[in-house]
From TrEMBL:
The keyword Signal appears for this protein: yes
Organism: Drosophila ananassae
Top-level EC class: transferase
Name of the protein this chain belongs to: Glutaminyl-peptide cyclotransferase
Family of this protein: Belongs to the glutaminyl-peptide cyclotransferase family.
SUPFAM superfamilies: Zn-dependent exopeptidases
Protein localization: Secreted
Keywords: Acyltransferase, Disulfide bond, Metal-binding, Secreted, Signal, Transferase, Zinc
A single cellular component GO annotation: extracellular region
Residues in Peptidase M28 domain copies: 104-331
Leader peptide range in chain numbering: 1-29
Function, in words: Acts as a glutaminyl-peptide cyclotransferase. Responsible for the biosynthesis of pyroglutamyl peptides. Might be more efficient in the conversion of tri and tetrapeptides in vitro. Might have a relative preference for substrates containing hydrophobic amino acids in vitro.
Highest taxon of source: Eukaryota
Gene: Dana\GF10438
Amino acid sequence: MENGSVILIRRWPAMLCWLLLCLVPLTNQQQARAGNVGTTQWSDDETHFNRTLDSILVPRVVGSRGHQQVRDYLVQSLNGLGFQTEVDKFKQRVPVLGELTFSNVVGTINPQAQNFLALACHYDSKYFPNDPGFVGATDSAVPCAILLNTAKTLSGYLQKQFQNRNDLGLMLIFFDGEEAFKDWTETDSVYGSKHLASKLARTRSGAQVAGKQAPRNIDRIEVLVLLDLIGARNPKFSSFYMNTHGLHSSLVQIEMNLRAAGKLEGNNNMFLNQISGGLVDDDHRPFLEDNVPVLHLVSTPFPDVWHTPRDNAANLHWPSIRNFNRVFRSFVYEYLHRHTAPVNLRYY
Ligand SMILES: *[C@@H]1O[C@H](CO)[C@@H](O)[C@H](O)[C@H]1NC(C)=O
Ligand SMILES: [Zn+2]
């Protein structure tokens, strides 16, 4: 992950923005109809969160024993939560460490559905020659634990009402090899995500309509929600992409509603109703380049422990983690629950 090169967001014609905002599932109208969006009660399961985080929070550089253990743990956990799980495995030569075997882990509920909500994080930890103990708590053990905890706390819904829907499936993606082995460049970074995006772009499945080819699998992703650098004190999340700004606004709204209902701790507003002046390069790059709408939930500025030995359990901020879990869980539930027709946020 890096924000060294700040790219200005392109300006979109105002008309286009209005059009796109109308297409997001949580419009103001719907919110008014449904009352207090986001305050539906889904209980925390922090025992599960802690157990999950403990299992992920080990050094897990690609190719290491810890990496293999965490990968197996992710597969097991997804299966236990009712996901159909696939491992996208491939070999590639990288700087410094030579040839490595990478494995993206992808869990899906309703794999036959027409479209998907995809939630993602990276599970590899960064290789530091002088710090073999680096565990990357915010980068990205906590984001991965949040994804599994979201599935766990919503499992009553996911494994009953949500099952067997044809319009929408839920995909949890644990990318491998996000981190650079030497210096962050387009080639030395996001190895797993490049591989998975190109595989999804080459394969087709799903419904064929009126003699047309089945859609490319990558085009079945309605939005890729990427979590990164979460777990430090008082994070701030800005909106990065115009086509998912409406979804970002629903996070702002859900946080406000939960706070008003007394369901959040402290008084830090995490989700800013603000468009970021720059972008952060991350696992979403290959998907973005293939026109997949991206909601990038990365805290900016980065946590000050970022890429230091202090990015560990001792420096996590639990009220912020609990608040994020609550807001994010509601957001995922509302997206799935309110989905009635395909959501097309694509730029073209
Ligand atoms: C989870 O771990 C945190 C940090 O150790 C601790 O403060 C919290 O009480 C734990 N929660 C549960 C339910 O054990
Ligand atoms: Zn990193």
